[in-house]
Amino acid sequence: MQPRPQPSAGLLNTIQALGAGFNGQVGISVRDIDEGWVAAWEGDIPRPQQSVSKLWVAIGVMDAVDRQRLSLTDPVTVTRADLTVFHQPIRTLVGKTGYKTTIADLLHGAMARSDNTASDVLLWRIGGPAIINRLLGDKGIGGVRFGPGERQLQARTAGLEWRPEWAGVSIGVQKGPPIGVQKGPPLSSSVTGMMGALFALVAA
Predict the structure, then answer these.
(1) Cβ(115)–Cβ(105) under 8 Å?
(2) pLDDT (tens digit per residue) in 164-181
């Protein structure tokens, strides 16, 4: 029986040095998609995933398309009430009567421009965080905590609690613990090792 391939000692030492030398909290995971080995530094500790969470929304959208629950050409009207905070290029297009677009365009905005509002509109269009968490469980993707949507997530990043009147406006960042060091687990998190496994599946 052939021994299972393993990462080189040099790579392991490099990853350990990077992790130990980082002035903060970090998780590192390297996976060889051909040989299957993994080299990690604290790869099983949940970390705030920030805009990586948009990937889960995109998977949820495509799953809904596969199940014929929606179509990429379905029309969507984004209103000012749908706006979130921080990075949302779509904001300039939303007038008093809203902005008419499609599922496909929103998906492109979320994935190619990391548009918070585009991702949030898609999230609630497919049923919200519970749908995403159920989908991840069904596909055997563990180590991921998804939710509660861009508004609460982005407000918490600034150390604030979401208020509806903030939709579409710039909010100041109050002094307080940065995301990832706040009390309790991050609202939206994943372990580094599982992200490496997922990207290996996507690459395949």
Answers:
(1) no
(2) 888 877 555 444 444 444
How far is 6 from 31, CA to CA, in rounded Å? Answer: 10
SS3 87: coil
Strand, coil or helix: what is 41? strand
DSSP state of 34: T
Residues in CB range of 113: below 8 A, 6 or more apart: 89
To the nearest 10 degrees (0 to 180), the angle between helices 103-112 and 53-66 is: 150
CA-CA distance, 109 to 93, in Å (whole number)? 12
Long-range pairs for 95-98: beta carbons < 8 A, 24 or more residues apart: none
Q: Please name the residue that has the structure tokens 């909010």.
A: 171
| C-beta of residue 94 within 8 angstroms of C-beta of residue 109 | no
Instruction: Quote the tokens at residue 166.
Output: 């903030």
The two three-digit tokens of residue 93, written as one number: 């297009």
Structure confidence by residue, pLDDT tens digits, 90-142:
999 999 999 999 999 999 999 999 999 999 999 999 999 999 999 988 888 88
